[in-house]
Amino acid sequence: MVDVLSQNEIDALLAALSSGEMDAEELKKEETQKKVRAYDFKRAVRFSKDHIRSLTRIHENFARYLTTYFSAQLRTFVQINVVQVEQLPYDEFIRSIPKMTILNIFEAEPLEGRMVLEVHPNVAFAMLDRLLGGAGTSPSKINALTEIETIVMERIFSRCFESLQEAWRSVVDLTPRLEALETNPQFMQIVSPNETIALISLSTKIGDTTGMINLCIPHVVIEPIMPRLSVHHWFVSQKKTIAPEEVMALQSRLHKAKLPIIAELGETQISVREFLNLSAGDVITLNKPVDELLNIRIGEKLKFLGSPGSIKGKLAMQISEIVSEGAEDNDE
Questions:
Q1: Rounded to an integer, what distance in angstroms lies between the CA atom of residue 296 and that of residue 306?
Q2: What distance in Å separates the CA atoms of residue 122 and residue 124, rounded to the nearest whole number?
């Protein structure tokens, strides 16, 4: 961002130049000199700001899909939001998560390599407690998972990858598949320690329990599809035309849609007492003369005017006029 000087700062600068405290030639030399910027090779910048924005947009959709999925599965209040998307070395990510956590290691064809969905123990055990009939609270002391707890967690987290597949559909058609569920980060080495990863942090609230869900995507895994994360690709993909086969299929389905046709003979108003005293043979006078055309509605919209009749012993309506747009409002 370019700094904008205030009027007082401009006046002070002009005064310094006029008094000789500052030399304009020296300022020009400073501007022409090459500026050196420090670069840390251990924290290599692999993702541009454009890539980070695209990843944020994709995983905001992922957070919404996860919220819907977990709300239906747990039958309780669930709220998931993207907190930040950043790039950092894989080793720094491993050191930042708890020593005992839930690590869902998965692959997503056609991408080559493994990714990790890390779920904080507070969130994971609150889900487990809710699924097993509890109120959805997390235990004060978290121990190793039993075999039953491991199976339950594998089932619920393996199905949440369907939400990831749906969120990425606009970029690439992924097929995520859970490979393993670990609890100790030290036993999980999916890439080299200095490899740059994209870390998507999701704040999660289940009932009164809060925690984080972190999605770790190594740069080497999504490098083949990095060009698709550019803004240019998003605009181009949005301009794609619909194939003629899809248009024909849509028209075919529309032609098969059923709509109710209602012919209104007329209407009237009677009291509740008169309605209760109605019996067979009574005559109700309507507001439509016999020689006036009747309203014919398609669904709830007035589309035609016609006359009643019969064909081969069945009731029928003969269309006499087509009602144009806006005529219904004028008629009523």
A1: 7
A2: 6
CA dihedral for 158, 162, 168, 173, sign (positive or negative): positive
Bridge partners for 302 per DSSP: 297
CB 229 within 8 A of CB 220: no
Alpha-carbon gap, residue 57 to 82, rounded angstroms: 9
Is pTM beyond 0.70? Reply is: no
Please, which pLDDT band fits residue 68 given cuts at 50, 70 and 90? very high
The tokens of 12 are what? 């002070």
Positions of E strands within the chain: 78-89, 102-109, 114-119, 175-182, 196-206, 209-218, 261-264, 294-298, 301-311, 314-322
Q: Are the C-beta atoms of residues 221 and 196 closer than 8 Å to each other?
A: no
154 class by beta-carbon count within 10 Å (0-12 exposed, 13-18 middle, 19+ buried): middle
